[in-house]
Amino acid sequence: MTRTIGRAPARLTGGLVAAAALALLAGCAGTPSGAALVGTWGSTAASQPNLTIENDGAFSGTDGCNRLSGKGSVDGDTITFGPIASTLMACQGVDEWLAKASSGTAKGSTLVVYDISGNEIGKLDKSK
Predict the structure, then answer these.
(1) Tens of pLDDT along 95-110?
(2) Is residue 2 scored above 70 in pLDDT?
(3) With contact defined as beta carbons under 8 Å apart, do 9 and 17 qualify?
(4) What b/e readout covers 53-65, taking b as 16+ CB neighbours within 10 angstroms?
(5) With 0-12 CB in 10 A as exposed, 13-18 as middle and 19+ as buried, what is 128?
(6) Residue ranges in 7-111 assigned as alpha helix (H)
């Protein structure tokens, strides 16, 4: 028994390959809606809070004393922080407000941070 396998015309195959490549590249481009959030916010000076947010919602930084990290979800210019992992060092004279963050919204060059009740608890300026 002999089978004949039909082939799509070259122009159709080339178009499908190009469409598949374009779809793959678009998937690698990151989250354009979260572009306003991506980057480092706050100061890297001693005892100052800062936060670096990645395209996929991963974040890391410090509340000025303890190291913070986790993964959040990004929707437009807002991030909802997932559980925050933190070191537990005792630091005097440091306001550890960033560890209480539930969400944050990029408003221009400022990240406004909110607690679980929706109250503003602090702001971080975008690092240059």
Answers:
(1) 999 999 999 999 999 9
(2) no
(3) no
(4) bbeebebbbbbbb
(5) exposed
(6) 10-28
